[in-house]
Amino acid sequence: MNNLKNQIKVNLTAIASAILLSISVSQVKAQQNVGILGVDHIGINVPNMNQAVRFFKDVLGFSPVTTLGPIALDHAWKKTNHMQTATGPVTIKMVKAGTGANIELFEYKDNKGSNLQPGGDDIGASHIAFYTGDIKQSVNYLKSKDVQFLGEPFLTPSGDTQGESWVYFTTPWGSKMELVSYPNGKGYEKNNPATILWSPKNPSEKSNTSKNMKTLSESEIRSLVDLHLAIWNEKGITKREKLMKEVYADNIEMVDSHFIAVGHKEINGFVDDLQKKSPNSRFTHVKAIDVNHNIARLYWQNGTPEKPNAVTGMDLFVFENGKAIKLYVFVDNK
């Protein structure tokens, strides 16, 4: 019966590993194939280009940069893009909107499309949200420019967006837009998520884009996994912390069958406790490290020189932006 239970656990471990590999590899393949780095611009139609430019420039302080048109559109183009055949030429301006995505303005002469702004619950309705460090100050300023607000700023009291204040306003031509502010972060960030939403309040993220998008080679991943073993064998806490910064993301999650440790501090505490309980034990490879895209698999053993395989298992790593973001620990039962 014990042999049967052990075999079931081994099979479940293999299945779990296969599922994790499948999900993570498919995500990486999608990222590599589509090649998207982020949002470049948001396009909106306006009834009067001069009016729109004045608003974005004089009221919001943005900078118009490029202009195209007027461009005559042929019948085939209009049909393909679901436009009225009698609509005239289009003029396009790209506006730099502070730190973040640009705004692309379209004005169609003799526009035969709908002149009604979509309602809040209409399919296709959208809005642009602008970040501000002080929402009250921004509201007061915009009100002095006769901008119409749809209510007063609301502070989210709980949930993922706890600490976020927001309020909607309208442009002179009736489009709905938003002011949003969360100077102390959002609620979900306290849970140490694997991914943090981009925000214009952290402009340094933009300058670090190339660094954050780093793709590791197989040899680089194997080197990091070797350092992972060095971390778990290192007796000194300070030296261990230094190695962790090289290998693990700040918000790494280590998932064991009995607990989840998040971040360097929690993992370091666990390793330190393990070192104290078994001061003469060391982790070593059982076989070569397997690498598949951003996934690595390490089969290990732990024990004394007299019995080096007292405990055996497998670690599964997920690498993102040059460091391990997930660590799944599987311990074999003997």
Verbal overview:
This protein has 334 residues and is α+β, with helices and mostly antiparallel strands. The chain folds into three domains: 39-112, 2,3-Dihydroxybiphenyl 1,2-Dioxygenase, domain 1 (Roll); 126-188, 2,3-Dihydroxybiphenyl 1,2-Dioxygenase, domain 1; 214-331, Roll (Nuclear Transport Factor 2, Chain: A), CATH 3.10.450. It has nine helices and 16 strands. It has helices spanning 2-34, 49-59, 75-80, 135-144, 204-207, 209-212, 218-233, 237-247, 263-277; strands spanning 41-45, 63-71, 90-96, 102-108, 128-131, 148-149, 154-155, 165-170, 176-181, 248-255, 260-262, 282-285, 290-292, 295-303, 311-320, 323-331. Strands 10, 11, 12, 13, 14, 15 and 16 form a seven-stranded mixed beta sheet that branches. Strands 5, 6, 7, 8 and 9 form a five-stranded mixed beta sheet that branches. Strands 1-4-3-2 form a four-stranded mixed beta sheet, covered by helices on one side. Strand 14 and strand 15 form a beta hairpin. Helix 8 packs across helix 9 (263-277).
Oligomer state equals: single chain
CATH class of the largest domain reads: Alpha Beta
- Our Rg estimate from Cα atoms comes to 27 Å
Low-confidence residue ranges: 204-212
Coarse structural class: alpha+beta
Compute the number of structural domains.
Answer: 3
Q: End-to-end span in angstroms?
A: 13 Å
Shape: elongated
Tally of strands: 16
CATH architecture verdict of the largest domain = Roll
CATH topology type of the largest domain: Nuclear Transport Factor 2, Chain: A
What's the story with the biggest beta sheet? Answer: 7 strands, mixed
Summed over residues and divided by their number, the pLDDT gives a mean of: 85
The DSSP helix count reads 9
Helix fraction, binned, reads: 25-40%
**Element-by-element helix/strand order:** HEHEHEEEHEEEEHHHHEEHEEEEE
Beta content: 25-35%
